[in-house]
Every structure is written in C-alpha cells, then in structure tokens.
Amino acid sequence: MSLPKGELEVVGESEQVALDSSEQGPRSIAGRSLWAIAWRRLRRNKAALVSGVIIIILVIVAVFAGVLTNLYGHSYLTQHNTAPNSLLDPATNMPLGAFGGISSTHWLGVTPVLGQDILSMLMFGARSSLIIASLSTALSLLLGVSLGLIAGYFRGWADTVISRTMDVLLSFPTLLLSISLITVVSFITTSLLVRFCVIIFVLGFFGFPYIGRIVRGQVLSIREKEFVDAARSLGASNGWIMAKEIIPNVIGPILVYTTLTIPNYMLGEAGLSYLGVGLNPPTASWGQMLSDAGNYFQIDPMYLFLPGLAIFISVMAFNIFGDGLRDALDPKSTR
Fold it and tell me: Please, what is the Cα angle at 85 between 80 and 87, to 5 degrees?
C-alpha cells in the first residue's frame, strides 16, 4: 500500500507515519508483527533495557562461575585462617584491614572465621540461586500452563476439580510446609542433589496455581473467539486448537509471569537458606551467606551488605524487566 506525499496513516500502536515531503514519489508502508511492535516499545524503556543487561550479566556469571574464579585466582572453598597465609586477626578471627579485608588480591574481602573469598562465593551463589529459581519456574510453568489450559478449555468437571485443587494449594502455608518437608528429608539423607530437588519441588509445586489461574482465565476468554470457532468448524481436534490457536495467544502473560516469578523463587531459596533449611556449606548460597553474616554484622557489616546487595540488584532487575515486558506486550498500555 502507498500514500501520496504528505498524508498520514495510523499504524500499530497509534503511531503516525508521515511521508517525507522532500521525496518525489510515494513510499510503501510495511506492516509490523506483534513481536516487532513489542520489541520497539521495549527498546524505548531504558530502565527495562538496563535491567535486561544486568540479567544477562548475572546469567553469564552464574554459568561461567568456575571459569571466572579461575581467572580471578581464588576459590571460595579455600580457607585463609591458618598461618602463614592467614588473612584474619588471630585475636578476633575477623578479616585484617578495612571493609572486611578488601584488598587488591581479594576484591570484596574475606569471610570471618574461615577467611573465604567473598567475591567467588557470590559468583557461585548466583549459580545456586539461578538454578533453583529457573528449575522451580519451569516446574510451575509445566504444571500451571497444562492444568490451566485443560481447565479453561474443557470446563465442566475438569475445571471444577483443577480449580478447587489450586485453591487448596494456595491456602497452604508454603513456608512452614517447606521447612517441615526439607527438615524431614535432611534426616533421611544429606545428599546435595536431593536437597536441591526438594527445594525445587517445594517452590515449583506450590507456586504453579498462580500461573494456572492466569492461564485458565485467558483460555476461558480465547476459546470463545471467532478464530477458534472457525478452526473447530473446519474439523480441527481439541489438541490442535489448544496447540495452534490458544497457546500462542497466552505466550505474553506466560513470559511476564516468568520474569516476575524467577526473582520470587530466588528470594524463596535465600529465605530457606537463611533459616538453615536450604543449601548448606560448602555449597555457596546468598541466603546462607546472609545467615552466617548475621553473627558478625556489628563488627563486619560488609559481609552482610554484599550478599544483600546482590539479592537486591538481581530481584530488582528481574522485576523492572518484567514490568517493561508487560507494558511492551500490552497494546493498551501508554506507560
């Protein structure tokens, strides 16, 4: 389609595209897909872009934590609490020097009592947090999207059973149940893999009703649309309609839910580790670092401040990026 010189056309998100009056002929107007429009809106949100860069850096640090600590030259498992390489005051077992022993060798200092390098602990703590948060979110998505899709599309007894089950799970005191379950498992086995799996299961299983209710509500609306009736009238099966017609139209809410849920699960893992029922040493964890630092915060506040700052920045980045993604995918948003 083309326009004469100087005319305007409203496209996409109420944007006006004008022809350059200096051109001698008409210019064709190319259409944009929904994802192209969303990406264009997201690029305008500088806070969301900065948050996206922080998330990418966090993922890179978590994935390549081993490589980065090798380049850095210090492992968090190495203890500097015995002579002649001790970095601690023998009288107090606190780091030598100001700000928790920060130096050109140990950039963020060392821990009290054991003298472990804090920067390398933060790197591996990022790996632990992201592994648990990502797998817990994946479990929530698998259960929530599947059950929400079935409940919203088939309705009837399936909707009743699934909806009431999600209501029951939402009424559970998740934190108390998590502490009880993990404590019981700890008496049975001390396996690190089992502890990881239990934490992921607890966070993901008791979190899926949230996304399940979102997907159910979206599907209840979409299944009544004309394009779904058209596919059904042409003989499409229920599985084909759900896979090809309905799921692509709920991708937006699912993506937003994912970006907002990962930080919640990061806080969940940190909270469990802080309470002593999450990850235990020698596995690095931001929550476990906070729990340990609580004993020394009056003498060495940097040990408490650094893992708290890491959690704050990570959670804030995911939340801001999730807000920006939601605004970009919502055509009615004017923010």
Answer: 55
Q: Against a cut of 0.90, is the pTM above it?
A: no
Say if CB 38 and CB 48 are below 8 A apart. no
Domain spans in the chain, listed from the N-terminal domain onward: 47-329
The position carrying tokens 């940190």 is 270
CATH T-level topology, domain 47-329: MetI-like fold (1.10.3720)
CA end-to-end span of the chain? 30
Reported as a single tens digit per residue, the pLDDT across 155-209 is 889 999 999 999 998 888 877 888 888 888 878 877 888 888 989 998 999 899 9
The Cα–Cα gap between 58 and 61 comes to: 5
**Rounded to whole angstroms, how far apart are CA atoms 295 and 111?**
12
Spatial distance between the Cα atoms of 186 and 192, rounded to a whole number of angstroms: 10
Give per-residue pLDDT as tens, 11-50.
444 444 444 444 455 555 666 777 788 888 888 889 999 9
Distance CA 52, CA 32 (A): 23
SS (H, E, C) 219-288: HHHHCCCHHHHHHHHCCCCHHHHHHHHHHHHHHHHHHHHHHHHHHHHHHHHHHHHHCCCCCCCCCCCHHH
Sign of dihedral through CA atoms 149, 153, 159, 163?
Answer: positive
